[in-house]
Amino acid sequence: xxxxxxxxxxxxxxxxxxxxxxxxxxxxxxxxxxxxxxxxxxxxxxxxxxxxxxxxxxxxxxxxxxxxxxxxxxxxxxxxxxxxxxxxxxxxxxxxxxxxxxxxxxxxxxxxxxxxxxxxxxxxxxxxxxxxxxxxxxxxxxxxxxxxxxxxxxxxxxxxxxxxxxxxxxxxxxxxxxxxxxxxxxxxxxxxxxxxxxxxxxxxxxxxxxxxxxxxxxxxxxxxxxxxxxxxxxxxx
Length: 237
Hints:
Blueprint: H1 2-21, E1 25-29, E2 34-38, E3 42-46, E4 58-62, H2 70-95, H3 99-115, H4 119-126, E5 140-141, E6 145-149, H5 151-193, H6 201-221
Antiparallel strand pairs: 1-2, 1-6, 2-3, 3-4, 5-6
């Protein structure tokens, strides 16, 4: 199960990298047969292509930080920021299993995903005239153009799903470990609770901690790896 968590987290890392690099939104002009793809840092404009060297018909330019698109850039920036956070935490989960980390990575990517839906009101806010298009709908098509989310947006959603599954698997693994640990300590707790020499709860707790300490000592002397996950004041020597 731990291997499954690492694999899922590694796939999520790839998805988040794609989300950081590739465009999140596009607009296609059907009359000119021209596609404009947008990411936080750049714009890509692709003209019609009849040959195999389509990259020659693409123009790349950095997106200017001007006041006319500040709301759009703000939405792109917030989404990109949380994807970067999700990527960093996912890398940690893929290398060092962390239940809390898998939860946080899934949460960060979900925030990024949901935040980007605000791109529609952001475009509407900055549009001089808004009749139809991205200012009214997140995605759609008319006789003259089409628009909607692009590769980066879907990669972020995929990364969220992989981290969500990883967190569920990791949570299931920890729950099973806790149940096995409780089953192992149950006979000791029963014998201690039924002993006439132990009357108070505090004395029972001290006795359980002492039994735990003896278990660690026996395991260490016998060359056996001590059990992990045991809680108590004397659980760690």
